[in-house]
Amino acid sequence: MKRHILFIVLIIFASTTWAQAQRPEPTGGCVQESETECYTFEYFGAMQLEEDLMQVQFGLQVNCDELAYIAFELPEGSEAAGPASIYHENATDYIVRNGEASEQGPNEVETAFNAIQFNAKQNYSLSGGAIDTFTFNLTMADFEALSTMRVRATLREMAQGNREVITQSEQVVFDLNACSPLTGPGACVVERDAANFAFAGATDNGDGTTTVNLMIQNLAEADVSSVTVQTEATTDEIGVAGLTNGDVYSTQRYHYKVVVNQDEDLITFEAQNTNGYASGASDIFSIVVPTDMYELAPYFLMTVTAGESFETAGLNTISCEDEPITPLPVELMSFEGKATQSGIALEWSTASEDNNERFEVERSQDGKSFAKIAEVAGAGNSATTLNYSYTDKTAGAGLHYYRLKQVDFDGQFEYSKVVAVENRAAAANASMEVYPNPATTNYVHVALQSQSSAQLKIMDRNGRTVYTQDIAPGAQEIQLSIADLNIPKGLYYVHMQDATERQVQKLIVQ
Question: What are phi and psi of 291, to 5 degrees?
Fold first, then answer.
């Protein structure tokens, strides 16, 4: 039986007036196609390594001829931050020039802006749909100065006499603040003895699917031999960005054969060439899942095998917590919840039971702290399908999390996965109301009924806080300006936490 946990990314980006005034408008989202479709650029996000050091990571897929150069914009007069060794992890493939704006030269990118440049060597070919990732560090001041970043890539071809000719140079602009960040130490990294696991951002593809980037750092001395990612159960198909079952998935230096098991909601990356993916090296795995599934239950169970080492962790892009992943002795076939006029109806079924005394239904307001609200007797021993149900009539409005605690007759117990259910049926009696919703005008109102101090937060669909406000006791309504919030159209979550409870409501900005 699969089990999953929850976590929240809480990283806030800043920008400056100079950065907004001097740079062009972004030309797309976090994944961008060039006009000729020769390039697919992707901004994975930024990871805070230290108090004053950010690590930025991009991906590039070259669909035409060979890549000659790629350049990433830096603030004028600045260089990418140290240590220099990070720029030479793939030194066999690229010559790296740091902070050199150039208009000429055989091994430099022709850019009108200051940049860090990755120049492909003659013996290295990135073409025909191959993908590389590019990583570099920036000081916090330089990162905050770059509210947008220009990225320019150039193809090459060999003319008569083996003379390199530069062709097909194209440029895109990324909005760094709008794209999902990578996690930083102590934020949304689940640490294990032999591996660390992290959420590396998500992109809504606009077609009913979302690409979720998951990062794994292998701490073992042996190279990674396989990685698996298991998603929340869904009737829709899952996959890997740009690939079908059996394809080879390539990153900066590593290559995997992809095997997708739709029945088990499981994706396996079997190593084809992972030399060097050891001793602290990291890689990112891009999973494509249904958007509605991701927004309701963004759970992912990751495992990594390296030599004799095996590590696993459950991750969720909402809460940044982890629990041990262990199967239930009862074979649980399903566990689902839905809001009704009578309350939140929970239903689950078992394929078999062994020594099962009871199920304890537990509820949580934040996905972390659970409390028992009911008991349902088990069947003891069974080899046939059994169905169970319970209706939570005490749940208020907002988002609630539920799990089952299966208890044996000898007292041993195991937990099920967590399901999240939004109770809209009780909205009329809620002590917090957000309107108009969807928000089609400039103003959004939040009606409150709290007698104690409270805090209001607005988070985007990736768990990033976009607004925070302290609420005085007795406040009845807050008016917010969408223009002042400076947030794009999309799905958001409005959180209110006072001394006694936490409430969450969705907000759609149109």
Answer: -65, -40
Q: Cβ distance 78 to 65 under 8 Å? A: no
Q: How many CB atoms lie within 10 A of CB 326?
A: 10
149 by Cβ neighbours in 10 Å (0-12 / 13-18 / 19+) ranks as buried
Q: What pLDDT is attached to residue 161? A: 47
Residue 286, token pair as written in the block: 């891009």
Assign 3-class secondary structure to 59-74. EEEECCCEEEEEEEEC
Instruction: To the nearest 10°, report the CA torsion of 507, 432, 201, 261.
Output: -90
Q: What is the pLDDT of residue 144?
A: 81
- Number of other residues whose CB lies within 10 A of the CB of residue 251: 19
- The DSSP line for 264-310 is TTEEEEEEEE-TT--TT-EEEEEEEEEHHHHHH--EEEEEEEETTEE
Residue 176's nearest CA partner among 366, 12, 38, 399 is 12
* Residue labelled with tokens 């109806």: 345
Report field, pTM of the whole predicted structure over 0.85? no
Q: Which of 288, 248, 252, 292 is nearest to 31 (CA)?
A: 288
Closest CA to 143 of 283, 11, 19, 9: 19
Size of the chain, expressed as the number of residues it contains: 510
Mean pLDDT by 10 residues, the chain (510 residues): 28 24 42 82 76 82 84 89 66 76 50 85 79 84 85 71 58 75 52 85 79 87 92 73 73 81 87 88 85 75 90 73 50 83 85 89 82 90 88 81 90 84 59 76 78 82 82 81 86 80 79
The angle formed by the CA atoms of residues 481, 484 and 486, to the nearest 5 degrees, is 110
Give the SS3 label for residue 164.
strand
CA–CA distance, 98 with 118 (Å, rounded to integer): 9
Q: What is the pLDDT of residue 427?
A: 46
Question: Can you say whether residue 490 is alpha, beta or left, with left for phi > 0 and alpha for psi between -120 and 50 degrees?
Answer: left
CB of 220 closer than 8 Å to CB of 281: no
